[in-house]
Known about the structure:
By secondary structure, this protein is α+β, with helices and mostly antiparallel strands. It has one domain. It is built from two helices and four strands. The chain has helices at residues 3-17, 65-69; strands spanning 22-26, 33-38, 41-51, 54-60. It has a four-stranded antiparallel β-sheet with strand order 1-2-3-4. The longest helix is centred in the first third of the chain and has 15 residues, at 3-17. The radius of gyration is 13 Å and the shape is globular. The N and C termini lie far apart (38 Å).
Amino acid sequence: xxxxxxxxxxxxxxxxxxxxxxxxxxxxxxxxxxxxxxxxxxxxxxxxxxxxxxxxxxxxxxxxxxxxxxxx
Length: 72
């Protein structure tokens, strides 16, 4: 993913999630995925799917059970 795509993904996520604290960052040594942060906290990975010229992006976010316990 290039810098333009990263910017578009960041703008999209900020709008959909309602938070300007979301930041999309390039990953070292790979160009088929990027990382998503909320401030300095890592929240997930976006993977590029580029089959047959149809580009799509998959956002994967792991939620740990201990994170849910903090919500109680």
